[in-house]
Amino acid sequence: MIQRAAEEPEPGFSDLGLSPEMLDSLRRARYVTPSPIQAAVIPEALDGNDVIGQAKTGTGKTAAFGIPLIEMLEERGKGPQALILAPTRELAQQIVAELEKLAINHDVAICAVYGGQPIDKQLRALQRGVDIVVGTPGRVIDHIRRGSLYLGDVVHVVLDEADRMLDIGFRPDIEKILRRVPDPHQTLLLSATIDPEIRRLADTYMFEPVELLLSKDEPSAETVNQFYVTVDQDRKTELLLHLLRKEKPTQCIVFTRTKRGADRLAARINRVVKGVATIHGDLPQTARDKVMKAFRSGEIPVLVATDVVGRGIDVTGISHVINYDIPEDPENYVHRIGRTGRMGRNGVAYLFVTPEQGEPLTNIELLMNRTIPPLPLDDFVAHDPEAKARKKEGAFRELFSYL
């Protein structure tokens, strides 16, 4: 495995050996300067090398692999030339949307394949002929078994958010797919972390990959201002409304622990705040697609979500993340707050902690190797230590009044 230190980003995309058509597409898409991951990956990919790119989410990874893929495509054959695997349907959709912007000056057919959508539409698209297929591993396997996805022409494979795909158990499917791709082919692996599982996968299925390390392995959120608030359980909704009125976020994601809790909370705050929607695993795919489209366009300023779909939300303009429910797994906190502070922008993350949840807060701080400060609240009473005692005393008085 070849390790190379990530170089400083070049002044512009014109220094990366891109075609005039691609440079025009980048100008139209308002790409000005390559991010570090883009400046590092694009030249290596264009040289035909296998690449492992490590960088945090929100750093421009889609364009890092999408630009060279589009540039390297040749005349369309029987099957796709490039296969991109992603962990969630939401991420697959976002990749397709980004690739379509980048390929505006190229004759490129792109198809997304994922579960939760009628397969007939995907079958028709594949039958018409495509250059790039973007899909979740399970649905890609389904199409291979049906004979609707021919991998014999694939010469480029991308594993996006590889760590996430392994975390949720896609390794067997990924390996089945990689074994079907003919050699020689190029593999680009993008991941927020490089752990032993990632290295084993790379050792088995990649050829002398160039390793570009653009972030440390530990969780990081330098561009996110984090605070916690000690709040009584029955004051959480009022606190949320208070913060939304005070902060006036450009776009905000509110994370809850359960799907039912997301629905209940969205219904409550929708009476006061305009443009609230919810997204979770129980929503039909068509409804999820509609919500995400509206959220990306800015029509929905507040999105209430569960962790199941939280990592698939990749929207640059999210200014705030509010952890209405503290996550059971500390790593989910890192993934949640990673939805803001993207592409160098600053973001804000609030964590609601009830008086009994000191231990989960400590676990998050230990994982991140940092202390999360309390949020000063001079204009709102989030926690009243004497309220419980007063309530208990009132109950006793009521009881004894009947005796």
From TrEMBL:
PANTHER family with a match to the protein in the record: ATP-DEPENDENT RNA HELICASE DBPA, ATP-DEPENDENT RNA HELICASE RHLE-RELATED
Residue ranges occupied by any Helicase ATP-binding domain in the UniProt entry: 42-212
Domain Helicase C-terminal: 223-383
UniProt keyword list: ATP-binding, Helicase, Hydrolase, Nucleotide-binding
Domain DEAD-box RNA helicase Q: 11-39
Residues spanned by motif Q motif: 11-39
Protein name in the entry: DEAD/DEAH box helicase
Record flagged with keyword Nucleotide-binding: yes
Gene Ontology cellular component list: cytosol
InterPro entries: DEAD/DEAH_box_helicase_dom, DEAD/DEAH_RhlB, DEAD_box_RNA_helicase, Helicase_ATP-bd, Helicase_C-like, P-loop_NTPase, RNA-helicase_DEAD-box_CS, RNA_helicase_DEAD_Q_motif
PROSITE patterns: DEAD_ATP_HELICASE (PS00039), HELICASE_ATP_BIND_1 (PS51192), HELICASE_CTER (PS51194), Q_MOTIF (PS51195)
GO molecular function: ATP binding; hydrolase activity; nucleic acid binding; RNA helicase activity
Family according to the record: Belongs to the DEAD box helicase family.
